[in-house]
Every structure is written in structure tokens, then in C-alpha cells.
Amino acid sequence: MQINSNQLPETPKQATSSQVAESKLARAANQLVVGIARHWLALFNLAWGTYVVLPILAPIFMHFGLFAPAHMIYTVYSFMCHQLPDHSYFLFGQSLTPLKPSLEAGGMPLSVNLFQERQFIGNALVGYKVAICERDIAIYGSVLLFGLLFGLMRRWMKPLSIWVYILFLMPMAVDGTTQLIGLRQSDWLLRTVTGILFGAASVWLAYPYIEEAMQEVLESESQREQPLPA
Fold this sequence. Notes:
The protein is mainly α and 230 residues long. It has one domain (30-219). 65% of the residues lie in helices and 3% in strands. Strands 1-3-2 form a three-stranded antiparallel sheet, with helices on one face. A hairpin with a 3-residue loop joins strand 2 and strand 3 (127-129). The radius of gyration is 26 Å and the shape is globular. The model has no long low-confidence stretch (mean pLDDT 89).
């Protein structure tokens, strides 16, 4: 009886090659996990730093005529921020924090439609807006700053109580909500202070827990690599 070669059992050589490939893949995945656990804070700070620096580059690009990268940044961040001009910093203009009357006098179209208003990037007269609002700059900038400080205090810092975290969150919630429903108008200073409180408290709440989890990963890996007693 003729035996189909496709029905032959896998040879030991083939099985060994498969096992070697799986072993290499497992080692690579394990090294990736260990690398992230060991350097998670640097990765976080790099990510937040990139997130907060790119919006600042947008008006710089506009000022120097690099319109394509500037518009790309504005477009990407439009999904993550309202980008209202009178809630944003403007670079290369007469004021860092121009209000709506000044913006309208400087060329921003008159409109009651916020979706149309947010499309105004700026011009040579009033400057060009940063691609995220004042409050977001404060939030993510403080996350980066306090993330860097956490690197110096990670051995001693304990997680913030959830109730204290809520207290830190309340100023931003009150400021944003009362402005949203028309009770009052906020300003750049309040947006900045409340944003910093929220960003700093978020780091204080989350990073000690992340550090603890990553240390457990490293300790588990260290124990796994120890040779078994004979």
C-alpha cells in the first residue's frame, strides 16, 4: 500500500525546529514585558511629553510656513480637544491669551456655531493657536512634570486616597460645568490651576499602583529565572 507523504508523522527535526521557534518567540515576548516593567515610567513620560509638545509645534510650524505638518497636528488633536480659540493659547500674536472680541477684531469669523469657530487657527495678526486648549495644556503638562518628579520619589510616595483625589478634581468640575451652562465665564488662570490640580492628583493616585504592579512583574520574573534546587 502506497503511503501519502503528507500523512507521514512530523520528524523529530521538524518538531525541534517548531519548539525552537516557539521558545524564541516566548523569550522575545518575555523580554518585552520585562523591559516595559523596568522602564514604564520613562515610556509614560515620553508619551505624555510627545502629546503635550506636538500641539505647541503646530503654531510654530504655521509661523514659519510649514503648513502641512501644522494642519496635520490640528486635525489629529481636533478629535481630542474642542480647540476653541478663546480657550487656547496663541503664539506669535499680541496676546498669549486673546479673548473673543480681540480674536474677532483680528479676523476670526463672527459665528454662534462653536464647530465653525473652532476651525479658526489664527493669522499673522493675532498669532496661531496651540492645538489643544489651555486646560489640556495644564493637565498633560502637569502629568509630565509630576511624572518626572515621581521618578525621584517613587520609593516613598504612597497612592492618593480616592476621596482626596475627588477633592482635587472638584475645582475643575465646578469651573468647567458652571461655564458650560452659562453661569459664569472662566479664564486662562482658572483653567490652568484647575488643570494642574487634576493632572498632579491623577499621577499621585495612579503611578504608585502602577509602580507596585511593575515591581511584582519583575520579582515574579526574577523568581522564575532562578534555577531549581538539585
